[in-house]
Amino acid sequence: MTHRIGRRKMQHCDLLVRNAVLVDAPSGVHQADALCVVGNRIVEIGRGEDLAARYRPQQTLDASGRVVLPGLINAHTHVSATLFRGYAADVAGRGFLERMWRIESLLGPEDVYVGALAGCAEMIRHGVTGFANHFLHMDQVARAVEETGLRAALSRTMLDRQEPSLAGGELAAGIAFAERWQGRCDRITPMLGPHAAYTCSDRLLRDAAQEARRRRLALHLHVAENAYERRLMFQRTGTTTVIHLQRLGFFDDNRVLGAHSLMLSDEDLRVLMRHDFHAAVCVAGKMHRGHGIADLRRLLDAGINVCLGTDGPASDRLDLLAGARIAHIAQNYLHGRPCALEPRTILHLATAAGADALHWPTGRLAPGQWADFILLDTDQAHLRPLIHGPQSNVLVNIIHYATGADVDTVVVNGRILMRKREMLSVDTREVLDRLQRHAERLWHEAARSPQPKSGDAMP
Ligand SMILES: [Zn+2]
């Protein structure tokens, strides 16, 4: 299909991508083989000869042997936790949080910045063009996002460990971050981020929801992530996380990004489907911790927008395409049949659904969308043959056989951040050397610092 926004001869465009196989979730494999970018938007999709006859491009990308996909959206992560890759790998639930919060208490702003730079580099390398992040020292993450050219929805984690006297200060810090970044960078969307219902006081949850409503900010928190949380919530409130949040009025007139959404009852689902709730499911990370396998089919059947995240690098790689493959396999395992979720649905979850959750006009290859897209190198042994037509294997090959390592070129907001695997906005060598130094100091300090007494770190 050819979309046209103008008919003047030889218009200027900033970037013309030619000879591509264009693939997105709404259309599957497009008939068109070229796309045209002006500023930070895709302005037209069509046949290469046609677009080349009408546009004079500043830059051209020859996408022969490449598939163009919308940029991947990592809908839940803690990007600076690259510092903690492989840390606390042997614990889950309370044990994991105690270990993580101990080492996180040692973090300074520069650690968070360096960790975020490394995480941004990893995501660009793997075709993630936008992400939703939850962490402390969030100004430093924003600084890394600004510098590396990625897009992000950022929330400064608000956490009072159910100590209501701390709620006011935490809320103020979360709001101050959002105010500082609202309208400051066109690639940064601030959000409000209470950590979770089981780690925050009711006062903090209620006030955060009220401030989100008042300021038209979306909320991002962990929801129903494991059996430990479920047990704790039943002990404290006599009900589930979702019902408790509903009773607090948390969902009323708010857009909520719920990370994990793993342990949900039928009643929980009925509540969530009535609200502007988006599930950011991190399948591989939760399987890695032994928390369970999210049933994505069940969430989708309940009418909930489901998007994919990686969680922090302590739990999983930031390679969302690799995570999408695991999500695909896990659904087949769970439902006892192949293609329990079609590859095209998985692609939707990894692209358009995340964009929808964050209210970003991206995730699709169409005129008017932000120019956030990636080129996947299919000219490789593990991605051939590539068959078109009625028996097309293109989507299966992308979801089941590709990983982020196959991403060759990345464009965000119309700017090329990686070209033919060359990183253009980050000096990866320098960033990894800094990450190594910062991580070594933190790990050694954490090993020397006293173990928290039971109840110290956790509610
Ligand atoms: Zn998380």
Shape: globular
CATH class of the domain at 11-70 and 364-420: Mainly Beta
The major beta sheet can be summarized as:
7 strands, mixed
Classify the fold: give the CATH topology of the domain at 11-70 and 364-420: Urease, subunit C, domain 1
Which structural category do the helix and sheet elements fall into?
alpha/beta
Backbone CA Rg: 22 Å
CATH superfamily heading of the domain at 11-70 and 364-420: Urease, subunit C, domain 1
What small-molecule ligands were found? zinc ion
Describe this structure in words.
The chain is α/β, with parallel strands linked by helices. It has a domain at 11-70 and 364-420: Urease, subunit C, domain 1 (Roll), CATH 2.30.40.10. It has 16 helices and 19 strands. It has helices at 48-54, 93-104, 109-125, 138-148, 167-181, 202-215, 227-237, 241-247, 266-273, 283-289, 296-301, 320-335, 343-350, 352-357, 394-401, 428-448, and strands at residues 11-18, 21-24, 28-29, 34-38, 41-46, 55-62, 66-70, 72-77, 128-135, 151-158, 188-194, 219-223, 255-260, 276-281, 305-308, 373-377, 407-412, 415-419, 422-423. It has a seven-stranded mixed β-sheet, with helices on one face. A four-stranded mixed β-sheet has the order 5-4-1-6, with helices on one face. A four-stranded parallel β-sheet has the order 8-9-10-11. β13 (255-260), α9 (266-273) and β14 (276-281) form a beta-alpha-beta unit. α3 packs parallel to α4. The N and C termini lie far apart (56 Å). Mean pLDDT is 95; it is low at 453-459. Zinc ion (ZN) binds next to loops.
